[in-house]
Write a structure and sequence with these properties.
Blueprint (H helix, E strand, L loop, with lengths): L3 H7 L3 E5 L3 H15 L5 H4 E5 L5 H16 L8 E6 L13 H16 L5 E7 L7 H9 L1 E4 L6 H18 L6 H11 L3 H15 L7 H7 L4 H13 L3 H13 L4 H24 L2 E6 L2 E6 L3 H7 L11 H12 L3 H20 L4 H15 L12
Parallel strand pairs: 1-4, 1-5, 2-3, 3-4
Antiparallel strand pairs: 6-7
Length: 384
């Protein structure tokens, strides 16, 4: 391993770390800081400038502070690291704009291209950056640029966070089955910091045991808001009334908006209706891959024409998630799902047009759906 001195001597003058994956970006920034300016040197050798600003005036102040810091030699001629942290003004933004900001950034870019003073290194971390701008081009020309961007497409993002979670479990030497890994990600969401932190919590919870069980995830991994909505909808659709009411009351106690809960429930029934129709038409099948089940879509012009025009094309979802939803849909007929969704829509309208307490309307809705949907938890209502 290289010594701190060797690392400092061989380091580029500028490190640019950009991307919306905040956890991985900041983890890398911490590594750079510790390599170039160890904790015992940070009192005099590290200068941090907060770049997370909300207006043009604050952006100009941050650029000016950075410019001054880069031109000032280190204490007693020692090495110096200037960290422009979380610079939100490096991307085009309606909150921070104007010719003056661009001109100041161009001046900073010129300083970087001409060469920083001896012993001075610059570290820039930013959630987003204009790659056409002079600042990015200057950093690329003389420094090290690392991008930490999450994929924009849903299926790519799913693969991305799955790989991160799997890697985190491997580092903790924890064995987790593919279906439990998907359950874990349903509860954590796509935030990489949340994923890594929850893996660390599970590692502590397991002790010497290194194999994950479903009950471990349920007990330890707190669901994010979206996952909590899913759990509520799952319980309603599975006619698990006591669980549905418990989750509902817990969400309301944490000031979750009733209108958001009923909208998410409405979306779930709409999704199940679409999947049930696709099952009936033979456009969708549930296949077994090893120990898990995935969705398999028919590749045909008719399917593409019908589904591509939907606000949310179900074919873009993760096949494992789609398979779970399709199995839910298969337990009920189109008519049964339509009747249940009608109850949700009516309750939504009541919530908007009457003075009845929203919490009471939601609890009554759970009971109504439980009474309307038949109990087929032991088997599926096989599609024709």
């Amino acid at each position: 391993m290289k010594s701190v001195a060797e690392t400092a001597q061989q380091s580029p003058p500028v490190y640019l770390l950009a991307g919306d994956d905040e956890y991985r970006r900041n983890t890398r920034a911490t590594q750079v800081v510790e390599a170039l300016c160890p904790p015992d040197q940070q009192s005099f050798g590290l200068e941090i400038i907060d770049g997370d600003v909300g207006n043009t005036e604050d952006a100009l102040k941050a650029i000016a502070a950075c410019n001054a810091a880069l031109r000032t030699p280190g204490f007693l001629g020692g090495r110096k690291l200037v960290w422009l942290r979380d610079a939100s003004f490096l991307a085009s933004s309606p909150r921070v704009s104007g010719e003056e900001v661009r001109a100041r950034l161009a001046g900073l870019a010129e300083l970087i291209r001409d060469g920083l003073p001896p012993g001075v290194t610059m570290l820039v971390s930013t959630p987003s950056i204009d790659k056409r701008g002079s600042f990015y081009k200057a950093c690329s020309a003389v420094g090290s640029v690392e991008l930490f961007e999450k994929p924009s497409k849903a299926y790519q993002l799913t693969r991305y966070v799955t790989d991160i979670a799997a890697d985190a479990f491997r580092k903790e030497k924890i064995n987790i089955a593919p279906d439990l890994l998907q359950l874990f990600l349903q509860r954590t969401g796509n935030d990489t910091r949340q994923i890594v932190q929850e893996v660390e919590k599970l590692s502590i919870y397991l002790g010497e045991r290194r194999r994950i069980r479903r009950e471990d995830i349920i007990a330890v991994v707190a669901p994010v808001r979206e996952a909590a909505h899913w759990e509520f909808a799952d319980a309603v659709i599975n006619r698990d009334t006591l669980t549905a009411l418990r989750i509902l009351r817990n969400l309301l106690a944490h000031r979750e908006q009733p209108i958001g809960l009923i909208v998410s429930l409405e979306r779930r029934f709409r999704e199940l209706l679409i999947l049930r129709d696709c099952l009936d038409r033979g456009w969708l099948r549930i296949i077994t891959l090893g120990r898990r089940k995935d969705a398999k879509w028919l590749d045909s012009p008719e399917v593409d024409e019908s589904l591509s025009g939907l606000p949310s094309d179900p074919r873009r979802d993760h096949p494992y998630r789609t398979a779970m939803r399709a199995r839910e849909a298969a337990r009920y007929t189109i008519a049964e799902l339509l009747a249940a969704r009608r109850l949700v829509v009516d309750a939504h309208l009541q919530m908007l047009s009457t003075s009845l307490p929203p919490a009471m309307l939601l609890e009554f809705l759970v009971l109504q759906i439980n009474a309307r949907l038949p109990d087929r938890r032991s088997g599926a209502n096989t599609p024709k």
